[in-house]
Amino acid sequence: MSRQKKAQIIDSLQEAFAKCSIGVLTDYRGLSASEITILRRRLGESDVRYRVVKNTLARFAAERAGMADLATSFDGPVAIAFGYGNITEPARALADYIRTSKSSLTIKGGFLGDRLLTSDEVITLSILPSREILLAKVLGGMQSPIAALVNCLTAPIVGVARVLQARIKQLEAE
Q1: pTM of the model
Q2: pLDDT digits (tens, 9 = 90+) for 69-97
Q3: Are strands 106-112 and 22-27 parallel, antiparallel or unpaired?
Q4: Domain that holds residue 42
Q5: Which one, 3, 16, 17, 36, has least CB within 10 Å?
């Protein structure tokens, strides 16, 4: 491979490291080319790019992108799933693929911004609900005490209104 080609690959990897919201490192040993193609298609549906990288070029790109800690993670065959949207999508899509296809693909770790993730943390990300669901749960939790307070404050007034309504009906019956 020529120096110019290597420089282009390093630049594109550096750009991917800088722009992605999350990256998941995988060991793709044992996967055939057709299985990797199927995996890429599945990940593409979730706005995730899957790239097989040369370790030395990935190390240079990571160091250039300011992720020197990540450079130590490139040993053995490595492919990276770059996520550009929801941070749980790459982890969820990879975990689903591993579970459904029973492939030999393994998650080695990942990165979220400047923070390195272990494989266990990536798997934990895969079982988290989406951002919208988490926000709805937080808002529901914040709204619940307020609704309970409103019910407590209005209960006496509602009770008085019911007593008055019953008295009105009683007087109308007479």
Answers
A1: 0.70
A2: 777 778 888 888 888 878 888 888 888 88
A3: antiparallel
A4: 3-128
A5: 3
